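so im writing up the methods section and need the SpoIIE family protein phosphatase record in one place, dumping it here so i stop losing it
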Amino acid sequence: MPDRAAVPSPDPAVLARALEELPHGVLVHRGPEHLVVGANRAARTFLGDRPGILGRPLAEVFPEIAGQNLMGRFDHVFATGEPFTAREWRIEVTGDGDDRYVDLDAVALHDPPGEATGVVVQFRDVTATVRHRRSLEADTAELRERYEAAQDVVLTLQRSLLPDGLPVLPGMRIAAHYLVAGAEQAAGGDWFEAVALDGTAAIMVGDVVGHGSAAAAVMAQLRAVLVEFLLDGDGLDTVLARLDAFAGRVPGARGATVCIVLVRPDGEVRYVCAGHPPPLVVSIDGAARYLSAPGGGPLGVAGPAATVGTAALAAGDLVLCYSDGLVERPSQDLTVGLTELAEVASAAMRRGPSSTMSADATDRVAELTVERMTRHGYHDDVTVLALRLTGHAVPDLVTEIPAEPGRLSALRRGLETWLADLGVGDADVASIEIAVLEAATNSVEHAYPDGGGTVRVEGRLDGQGRVCMTITDHGTWRPAPADPGHRGRGLMMMRGCMDTVEIDDSVEGTVLLLDRRVRREPVVSPATVVETSATPRPSTMSVTRTVAPEPRIALGGPIDLGTADDLRRELWSASRGGALPLVVELGAVTHLGSAGIQVLYDFVEDMTADGRALRFVVPPGSPARHAIVLSDLDRIVPVSES
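--- predicted struct ---
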């Protein structure tokens, strides 16, 4: 019987060709410096075909890896031999122009004696899969409803106890991200707050021992009294002493920690940490440093009192306050998490995925820090509160337009741009826009009956976080009639949109003074990614008609004095002169002024008189919904969300 043929030995050339053709990326690096010794075609393509990568450290070949929480993982694989696996890891590749997601496995490379000599990384680009799934999730009402139902109670409680907005101050930008504890999804004791103290910003983060409603109630008390103490005007040492005494009297407050940072516009900083990790400062070039902890134990317990520290911020510097849930790691010293936080925040300041680069650096650092520091889960609430000195003050708004309807659109665009530069939130932008455009419209319509004349609009942001607007004309003030009918609603809308409205009319003209305290919304959610849109608002009214048994007309963009006549024609055309019922969709309307409200009132009245069905579709929170409620239009016509 012939001998069985010997099994052939592996052919290295065949294996090399197979590895080169694999659709998944493979990187091989050796030694503690992770010198790249191999990369197949898929890996080279993923990295943008960078020249001369062999024989160089991975951190040099792929410098943007710093701060993405990967190099430390590879170090651990090399040192311990334990594999590392990540799924759908968002990664930044400079020059790629888009976010990328990978499934990744890293294992130690051993020589025959068994000694670890390097690391092999195999990864698969799953960007298309992730985007497709997220698109389906976003478009599927059933999935959205399940998610909202599961989180509604927790998030409602958290939002009711946490601030509903962050102040907008000259030369500063503030952002906050808060994640509910991932393990138990129970309301926790972490809290944050930011208040304006006549130009000085006070930001604070605290933590109460425990979870659940009891801890949340204590958290709310501490936050409320601390804000009151600060607003009383006491020094920071006095404020902390009063807070410490209060905590000693409140069951459940003993042992709570807090970090308070006061930042002046010139960069002077005073801060105190009572049992809390120190603030992190990140400069505009990414250099990160922790402020030296001046010492002091938690609130309400025996021990040394916390002392006040001082520091200075330069233009562009960012100070980051956070809860210990962000940096604590099971079975690891706290310094490990603090080191990781500094690296991640530094990288986020210098760069980020394309979806975050259009955002202000403050928002980007807050978002990416939370996302990257919680990739492997979090067992406690996570809070990040960031304040950055922007390095420049947005100039006051000063513009003067001819008193003509066609000039209002330019005023609106200039106002929107100015408010966006200040960092004002969308809800406040919509309210201020309504009020200012109503004031300017009143001047255009009534101040100059013989034509000519101008309207001057001035705006400034004061040290208390209020936008103060002045609208001036040199015409004649027309008192409101006793029965304005459907007219004369502009002043009512102005008062509904602003905190104060003052009118000074004289023979020289009319001056309207409007002001509103403006805020930016914090992110309070289990989700770690906030999409940022840089899409500008439309400058003209858009119209889309749908022919159906119940005809629809969808309106978008601004509706003001300049487009009111167009709106009237479109409504009557869509309803065939009132012969058909009509659904009017207003969700895409960015501005609805009193001139548009008047047209809608007239149309509702005529359609109702003819017995024709009419319904408005206006989503909650939209600019049009705000204007419709202010004008009481929702009382005479059915208004639905869809």
